[in-house]
Write a structure and sequence with these properties.
The protein is α+β, with helices and mostly antiparallel strands. The chain folds into 2 domains: about 100 residues, no CATH class; about 70 residues, Roll (SH3 type barrels). Helices cover about 30% and strands about 25% of the residues. It has 6 helices and 12 strands. The strands form 5 sheets. It has a 3-stranded antiparallel beta sheet, with no helix packed on it. A 3-stranded antiparallel beta sheet has the order 9-10-11, with helices on one face. Helix 4 packs antiparallel against helix 5 and helix 4 crosses helix 6. The chain starts with a helix and ends with a strand.
Length: about 180
Amino acid sequence: MALIDDLMTRSGGVCELCGSAEGLDAVALSGTDESVLLCATCQSEDAPEAHWRCLEGAAWSPVAAVQAMAWRKLAEVGTDWALEARAAMMMEPEAQALAEAGAGGTEHRDSNGAVLEQGDTVVLIKDLPVKGAGFTAKRGTAVRGISLVPDNPEHIEGRVEGQRIVILTKFVKKR
């Protein structure tokens, strides 16, 4: 019970992501020894998209574990605004390490089986319609400086025509 008391003290008795005081519980940050105090809505898998706008504020938390949780949740939300907010996050190395610790050693591999790493350049191997952006990313397009999605080895992120998008690794090859 000491963990809950410590988290309640740290957070002032509110959810560390959205500020709600309802249904609070400690949630472990997977892949780490850290925990974050979350409300029932933030713990839910089916919270409405509008609820997750709170992550834009949580990203500025002075607590590394809260920043890491916000970074991971923004990737889960996956909408344009969430991916842009995630890309704009400036985290200390400690918070970034916590955020990426949940990858659990999974490797991101391209369509040919080559291991992808943060910052690599990849090339699209087929035309991909970009949902919500109204354009098609053409085969042969180079995507520079990719980001790896920590909780899903089949997804990477990158900019195509100025839009930050999520791309399935099976549709890219490493350059």
